[in-house]
Amino acid sequence: MELSLTTRTVAEHTVLEVGGEVDVYTAPRLRERLIELVDAGARDVVVDLERVDFLDSTGLGVLVGALKRLRTAHGTFGLVCAKEPLLKIFRITALDQVFPIFPTVDAATERDGSGPAS
Amino acid sequence: MATVRLSFSPAPVHVRTARLVGVAVARRAGVAEELLDEVRLAIGEACTRAVTLHRQYGLTDLVTVEMSDSDSYTVSVIDHAPIEASVGLAKLPPDELADESLTDDALTTGVGFALLAGFVDDLQVRPVDDGPGTEVRMVWPVTRR
């Protein structure tokens, strides 16, 4: 399934809803969108992965890049993911210790929920 | 003997095709349904690695994926990049993953290898027999029906 990207605002957070497959072919589009959002002034960014069917190392690299970018801009960055196959990918790569990961968008957008991008 | 062999030009768009074929052959070979997500991810990572290396070295040679189901399901992904490119495949510790000094390429390579090693119990990375290149060989058990 092709990559889909939709942005909305929830509780002063910019929520980027990602759907489909994030791989070596589609990840550059995700990277561009995240850079655009930060360049446009978004500082509290949440990436919702609930509709993602496939995520590989290239996609993970893009998410780490966004985390670093927001950290430099004194913003926050969080992920929404409750799917076990995707959570396993974060555990195996130890990236579950790098990203704040929330089960729902509501949990990720609570004012004190996402914390600093560290 | 390979039952299915796929060769593709080193373009990112073809990696998805390789994943789809790899999973279709795995299913037919009798790989357990619950392993198919891991098969998909591992074949994707191995092909991504090969495509990235070919592009890095400006190689137009085809990347080859061989799938065989003799006793188990074996997938070999073969690239033709200089062998030294395979050196340095190592799992990165968590505190280095978001380190500012780590380049995106190094991060993706490290994470890709962590996924391969994490999802494939039987994984071998070895030089190809003729010329430059590396073979990433992955084996999964099959259940005969």
Q: How is this structure best described in words?
A:
Chain B: Keywords: Kinase, Serine/threonine-protein kinase, Transferase. Chain B: InterPro entries: Anti-sigma-factor_SerPK, HATPase_C_sf, HATPase_dom. Chain B: GO terms for molecular function: protein serine/threonine kinase activity. Chain B: This is Anti-sigma regulatory factor (Ser/Thr protein kinase). Chain B: Residues 8-140 form the Histidine kinase/HSP90-like ATPase domain. The complex is a heterodimer of chains A (118) and B (145). Chain A is α/β, with parallel strands linked by helices. Chain A has helices spanning 27-39, 57-72, 84-92, 105-109; strands spanning 4-10, 13-22, 44-55, 76-80, 101-102. In chain A, strand 4, helix 3 (84-92) and strand 5 (101-102) form a beta-alpha-beta unit. The longest helix of chain A is centred in the middle third of the chain and has 16 residues, at 57-72. Chain A is globular, with a radius of gyration of 13 Å. Chain B has a 5-stranded antiparallel sheet with strand order 1-2-3-5-4, covered by helices on one side. Chain B has helices at residues 13-29, 36-56, 94-97, 104-119, and strands at residues 4-8, 63-68, 73-78, 122-127, 134-140. Chain B is α+β, with helices and mostly antiparallel strands. Chain B has one domain (4-140): 2-Layer Sandwich (Heat Shock Protein 90). Chain B is built from 4 helices and 5 strands; from the N terminus they run E-H-H-E-E-H-H-E-E. Chain B is 40% helix and 21% strand. In chain B, helix 1 packs antiparallel against helix 2 (36-56) and helix 2 (36-56) packs antiparallel against helix 4 (104-119). The longest helix of chain B has 21 residues, at 36-56. The A-B interface holds A 21, 23-25, 54, 56-58, 60-61, 64-65, 67-68, 71, 85, 89, 92-95, 97-98 and B 12-13, 15-16, 19, 37, 40-41, 44-45, 48, 51-52, 92-94, 97-98, 100, 104, 107-109, 111-112, 114-115, 118-119.
